[in-house]
Structure formats: C-alpha cells, structure tokens
Amino acid sequence: MKIMAINAGSSSLKFQLLEMPSEALILSGIIERIGFKDSIFTIKYSDIKDKQTLSIPNHGVAVELLLKKIVDTKVINSLDEIAGVGHRVVHGAELFKDSIIINDDVIKKIESVSELAPLHNPANLTGIHAFSKALPKAKGVAVFDTAFHQTMGQTEFMYSVPYEWYTKYGVRKYGFHGTSHKYVSLRAADMLGKKVEDTKVIVCHIGNGASLCAVKGGKSIDTSMGFTPLSGIAMGTRSGDIDPAIVQYISQKENETLDQVIDDLNKRSGYLGLSGFSSDSRDLWEAVAKGDKRSILAVEKQAKMIADYIGAYYLTLEGCDAICFTAGIGENASETRTLVADKIKILGVILDEEANEIKGKETVISTKESKITVLSIPTNEEVMIARDTLRLI
Ligand code: ADP
Fold first, then answer.
1. Which active-site residues does the annotation give?
2. Which domains does the chain show, CATH number per domain?
3. 286 C-alpha vs ligand 1 centroid, how far in Å?
4. The whole model's pTM is what?
5. Considering only CA atoms, which residue is closest to atom 12 of ligand 1?
6. What is the radius of gyration, based on Cα positions, of the chain?
7. Whole-angstrom distance, CA of residue 57 vs CA of residue 41
8. Is residue 10 over pLDDT 90?
9. By the 8 A CB rule, do 382 and 44 touch?
10. Measured in whole angstroms, how far is the alpha carbon of residue 17 from the centre of its chain?
11. Across residues 126-150, what is the average pLDDT?
12. pLDDT band, residue 360 (cuts 50/70/90)
C-alpha cells in the first residue's frame, strides 16, 4: 500500500511517498516559493533528482503538478494506488490526543484552534484541501505536532498564572515536535534493546527550531516548548526562555509594539541575536574556530540551556537510560554534543570521541563506561506520519 506524507507550509509543500508497511521510500521532494513566479519544484526518485523553476500560484496547482509528475515518473502505475495521505498539522490543542482520519468535523476543529498557530494551521489546511480535491478516493489523516505531549500531567502543562487564562483562553504548555520526539524515543528503545514501556529517555531535537522532551515508557512527561514554540532552549532565531518583563521594557525603550518585540524574540534572537550574523550552526562553528567571541557565546548559551533541561528532566524521570540527539544540529554538530556532554558530566556521561564524529547516522556516541547511553538518531517525521496513516485507514 502506498501512502503520502505531507508537510504543507505557507509557501512550501514537502512530500514523501512511502511503500507501507515496509516503510521503503519511493520518492520525495519539496515545492518551494508557492505563490511566486519562480517556484522551485524538486523531486527525487530512484537515483534521479529533478529540479525545475516554474510559476506555481497556489497549493492546489502544486498538488496537481506533483500528482502528474508522480504518474510521469512511472514509480507507480496509477494514482489509485495511493491509499492514504498523512498531513502534518502543527496545532491540535487539547482537541486531538492522537492522529485522526480527516472529515468535515476534524477540519472545523483544526480551524477552531488556528488562532494558536496562525502561521501553521491555515497552511496545513491548504494542503489537506488540495489533496482531498485531487485524490478524493485516498483517505486523509491529520498527524499533530502537539498530540504526543497530551500525556503531560497538569503540574507540567499548567503555567502559574491566573487559572482563568487556561479555562477562558487555553493558555497552557502544549509542546511541539511531538512526531519527532515519538519517533526518536521508539528508535532509542530499539537501540537499547528494551521494550519502550521500560525506557526513560531524554530527546534533544536540536534543529533551527529546538525542543527537549522527557519520555517515560514511550509517553511525553514534559517538554521545553510551551504555549508557542518560543520557549525552552535558545534556537536559530528564537530566544527560548526569558523573563517576560523584558517584553514590556524593550517595547518602551525601542518604541516597538508588543507584536514587534515578540517578533524580535522569534526572528532576531537565539544564534542570530547573540552572534549578530547568522542563525546557522555551521556558520557559527566556522566563526568559533576563528575565535569569534559572540559566536562562542551563542553556542555556549545554547549548550548551557540544553544541559539545564537535561538536568531537570533527569530529576523528572528519576533517572535516564538514554539521551538522544536529533535534527540538523543534534544529528550533525558533534561540537554541540561535546559542549553539552561536558556540562552534564556530573551525571556520569562520557562521550566516545570517535563515534561522536559520525554524522547523520544512528550511532551510540557514549563509551561503555558512560552511566547514561548517548545516541545520535536521525529523525524521520514522515515515517511516523505514514505509520499513523496506515494504522488509521
Ligand atoms: P528545521 O527543520 O528546524 O528548519 P533542521 O533540523 O534542518 O532545522 O536544522 C537546521 C540546523 O542544522 C542549521 O543550524 C544547520 O546549520 C544545522 N546543520 C545541518 N547540517 C549540519 C552539519 N553537518 N554540521 C553542523 N550543523 C549542521
């Protein structure tokens, strides 16, 4: 059975076509700059990579082009072979504790929580509408970034603010990257040779966006992102945790609206804010090698925040079998993993320097003597989306 995994953004559409249940990748790609005259359509299949620049005015046209291309590549005989389409949806609030087959009621509910993710949920919905029109026979499934964290207890998900903010407006910690945290915690159990029910792991998803998750017995117990993806550790351009009083203070000093200050915290902070020149970890490590003080501060600050959360989650979980690094930086930046490991050595963590140099591949990067196993695990959100789609259809 063939299943599409879709991640629709406001101007992009990432796709993978998978054979299920074997999880073999048939084709993958991305359509970028949708709505511009020079949209970019990249598709990879067999050993071929095809990249075209053309005008794609909206997501509906993008999906039509994609389906036509899939038929042209002859990787499948007919579009009828695609039995299901799994869609990443960023915010499911408290309405969705698991993935779900899409129907009109589900669409209404996703729309009803769009206020909590105004940049993401409407974009995810454009993908859902485009596929239900183009592939009416295939069942659609929504897979939420927030669903995995719905197992958090009240003490973890509530903020200590007026209680009515929660009852009236849904102000609480939701957490994000759930699909990735779930996938990585399952892989970690496999690598540890244990049943997932018997594991306690801390997942560090460190990409441009970044969050940590304490996972006990395969369930999210706590996570570092909150009401929005702004909280937690320092990221590419996001500040992570700060004193909220700074928002009002800077708004007065810089004569900015509250929206502008929040925008600064989302887009001009983190690596970019501290280094003053880049949000990309590769650029920063190049500058660190040349002794650039602000880049050193940026990578040190992020590593310190990661280490602090690991310490907190070690207590929450009452121990830990594995610390897992994933996503762009987690999987590749051995320098960041070294910095973090040094800051948590009191927990008995010892990295294997040679194994730590291996990039982008499932690897045990701690020594045999290390009290906690440290793993580098490439995330695969698309496989998780395809698995949930298969399970539900
Ligand atoms: P997102 O999906 O949140 O946009 P990614 O998971 O793709 O982000 O991660 C992007 C980050 O990963 C960037 O900071 C990039 O520099 C970093 N990265 C990717 N490859 C490497 C590498 N080989 N070494 C160091 N950092 C890397």
1. 145
2. 2-144 (3.30.420.40), 194-381 (3.30.420.40)
3. 14
4. 0.95
5. 328
6. 21
7. 13
8. no
9. no
10. 19
11. 95
12. confident
- Check: CB of residue 322 under 8 Å from CB of residue 375: yes
pLDDT averaged over every residue in the chain:
96
Tally Cβ neighbours within 10 Å of residue 313: 25
Task: Give the pLDDT mean for 39-43.
Answer: 96
116: Cα separation from own chain's centroid: 17
> How many residues belong to the chain?
393
Does the pLDDT value for residue 211 go beyond 90? yes
Mean pLDDT for the stretch of residues 224-250: 97
**What is the secondary structure of 88-151 as a DSSP string?**
EES--TTT-SS-EE--HHHHHHHHHTGGGSTTTHHHHHHHHHHHHHH-TTSEEEEEETTGGGGG
90: pLDDT strictly greater than 90: yes
**How many degrees, rounded to 5, is the angle at CA 135 between CA 131 and CA 138?**
100
Q: For residues 392 and 230, what is the distance between their CA atoms, to the nearest angstrom? A: 32
Cα distance from N-terminal residue to C-terminal residue, the chain: 11
Q: What is the mean pLDDT of residues 318-347?
A: 97
Cα 14 to middle of ligand 1, angstroms: 17
Strands of 24-32's sheet, edge to edge? 48-54, 39-45, 24-32, 13-19, 2-8, 82-89, 139-144, 100-101
Q: Which atom of ligand 1 is nearest to the CA of 271?
A: 14
Give the per-residue pLDDT at 42: 96
Q: Which of 120, 205, 208 to mutate to test the pocket of ligand 1 (most atoms within 8 A of CB)?
A: 208
* 282: DSSP letter: H
> Residues lining ligand 1, judged by CB closer than 6 Å?
207-209, 236, 280-282, 327-329, 332-333, 359
314 alpha carbon to ligand 1 midpoint, in Å? 26
Q: What is the dihedral of CA 101, 215, 14, 389, to 10 degrees?
A: -20
